UniProtKB/TrEMBL annotation:
GO molecular function: catalytic activity
PANTHER family documented for this protein: ENOYL-COA HYDRATASE, IP11341P-RELATED
Family the entry assigns: Belongs to the enoyl-CoA hydratase/isomerase family.
Gene3D superfamilies, alphabetized: 2-enoyl-CoA Hydratase, Chain A, domain 1, Lyase 2-enoyl-coa Hydratase, Chain A, domain 2
Protein name: Crotonase/enoyl-CoA hydratase family protein
Superkingdom, taxonomy of origin: Bacteria
Organism for this UniProt entry: Herbidospora galbida
Pfam families reported for this sequence: ECH_1 (PF00378)
Amino acid sequence: MSAPSNQALDLWKSASDSTYVERLPISTPHCRVDRDGHVVIVTMDRQEARNALSTDMLVGLAEAWTYISEHDDVRVGILTGAGGTFCAGADLKAMASPSEDERVRARAAEIPNYHWRGLLREAMPTKPIICAVEGYAVAGGTELLVGTDLRVVAESATLGLFEAKRALFPMGGSAIRLARQIPYAFAMDLLLTGRPVGAHEAQRMGLVNQVVPDGQALARARELADDVAASGPLAVRAILRAYRDTIGVPEEEALKISDALGWPVIGSEDAKEGARAFRDKRPARFTGH
């Protein structure tokens, strides 16, 4: 998908179909936010610094996650990086410096903890986020990946949590999250050695879902997004909540939480539409009700 110049609001043809892609006005100088039907594509775009995190980027990310959560007709988000790189981690100077953009400065003052929200550490989106990685996704880049739900990585990509190697700490949440997502020994290997990890090794660890040829991560993520968007949106959101709300909860109590989330989905109009579509051998037309 080719994008137009980075302006506040723009429309152009989607590469996947005949619909129009909309550049949302919450975009910032370092973060493009585009709407393509039920899918929002968030692109970190600070190519001169290998998409290292900045105030402009974090505010854009925070606003994108809020937009995805608050718009019922958005069903999934994609996070990627421009210029063949995902994200090379934190740029502490750029993160501490105020933006030159007046709107971004105002939003940075208004959004509580926009750093943590942007990094997917707080106020997690209520819809799934798919990560599409090319090139470097290291330090804060890997922390962002750990905050997503599905992960597509190009075969020459480099991942890694370098913080301990530099006598730092992974403040994005990976010290807690990683061992909950992949086997403990693999998590400690990544966290304690601070070594770089290739795409195929990351897949063997269970850190990523798919490895694709270079240049194809976003296209494959877009296909996955269509698959997610075709599922019942109430079911998708409830499944995410069931996982998140039961971390560390004993099984008996977790099942009660799961039932409280699941029964309204079972009784929804979308569930009835799913049964009708299966009977009629046609695609379901879910409305989120």
